[in-house]
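name: query_chain
kind: protein
chains: 1
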Amino acid sequence: MKTELDSLATALYVRTDDLLEDSPHLAPWRPSVGIAPRLSDAELVTLAVMQAMLGFTSEARWLRHARSHLGHLFPYLPKQPGYNKRLRKAAELLRRVTRVPATDTSVGSDDVWSVDSTPVECGRSRETVKRSDFAGWAEYGYCASHSRFFWGLRLHLVCTLQGLPIAFALTGAKADERETLLDLLAAEPGLVAGRPGQTLIGDRHYFGRAFEQQLAEQRIRLLRPARKGEPERPGAPLFKPLRQVIESVNESFKGQLDLERHRGRTPRGVVVRVMQRILALTAAIWHNDRTGQPVLRSLTAYDH
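structure:
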């Protein structure tokens, strides 16, 4: 039976295959002499996105499901160790592929962005903290939105008001959100170079005269709620409804794409699992936009 997910998967496969044909250096490195993989890199990217869309956090369960239900799309599927190994090596490819549909939407040139961070929990027991491979990166942090402490990382996300990811970074839980944002913009200067007068909406954590000055030098206008003791800032009536929009983007990652159930056990493992979800949301927005759907961030048509 053909589903909307099949249509998205086919479109994403074609775009990824075209990208790799034009830029073969983007593919994960492999020896020039040896056995060619039976699952192509474009198929691997498509398979990873479908896994995130359908909510399979276990790779073994996902491959069993794919063998039973997706044989019409993937004639060959590797075993779980091989799939995991190839996926971890494909993190950079997933990041590059994310850029392709993101720039091919009607909202990719939006002149208003939002910025926020959300927890990516990596463990709950003290033994996990002491023995995990995340030691030195993951940290104890506090999530004010849910009034809870956690041990792990933070996903910093710049996106349009429709939820389209523009830039993102994974840091320790205690990383300064302002420094992370500036580092993101410095790492990809092309993001704002052709966008004079870009508006950026953030919460109260994005404050500071020097910080705002650095954004102004890049011709970025920052809108944020006033902190305690500050006079009311421009755009105050907009912050409450827009805050709900920003939180709903985070909920798309956590509630529908299982961001905090990533099951990554190593830094590379968690990075690629986060990338899976970012690409999945980007691909859904891209496909919804191209097919004229009224709600661009809706994943309902693809989660079954």
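note: Strands lie at 112-123, 139-143, 148-160, 165-172, 198-201, 220-223.
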